[in-house]
Amino acid sequence: MIGIDIEEVKRFNKYLKNSKIIKRIFSQEEIDYSYSKKNVAQHLAVRFAAKEAAWKALSCKNRKIGITDIKIINNKYGKPEVFIKNKKNTKMDLSISHTDKYAVAVAIFL
Ligand SMILES: CC(C)(COP(=O)(O)OP(=O)(O)OC[C@H]1O[C@@H](n2cnc3c(N)ncnc32)[C@H](O)[C@@H]1OP(=O)(O)O)[C@@H](O)C(=O)NCCC(=O)NCCS
Fold first, then answer.
1. Tell me, what's the pLDDT at 79?
2. How many CB atoms lie within 10 A of CB 54?
3. CA distance linking residue 78 with residue 95, whole number of Å
4. pLDDT of 35
5. Does the CB atom of residue 65 touch ligand 1 within 6 A?
6. Taking the model in full, what pTM does it have?
7. Strands of the chain, DSSP E
8. CATH code of the domain containing 34
9. Structural domains in the chain (count)
């Protein structure tokens, strides 16, 4: 199954002013990665898009998984990977891309 999502970066620029929202949506690893980059909001936006895309790819199978149960962590080559809480064996492929305006993600549940 496949999932896709697109987000407007400007929404995440607004969230930067409210650390409570950021901490509610993102894991510490996702926050640390995004804040290590120049365009913080773009990296947060694309991680949110990736969570939504992964959720869509999974939703037919498991509606109990929420957005905060899904983490996006880059591997040592820079490729983003999906980790789902309490679901070590869920295999998912993910590709993401972002510009100053939009962030997109496509996830495939293998
Ligand atoms: C990795 C690369 C392709 C990203 O492309 P880009 O146009 O600069 O940026 P995009 O917005 O489309 O993609 C950025 C995302 O690519 C992902 N990415 C980085 N390295 C990756 C890899 N090895 N495999 C898959 N995805 C990768 C990251 O998730 C990154 O977003 P993040 O930093 O928020 O996690 C590019 O930076 C790069 O290094 N290119 C190497 C040059 C090259 O050989 N290009 C031709 C490839 S056929």
1. 97
2. 30
3. 11
4. 97
5. no
6. 0.92
7. 2-8, 70-74, 80-84, 92-98, 102-109
8. 3.90.470.20
9. 1
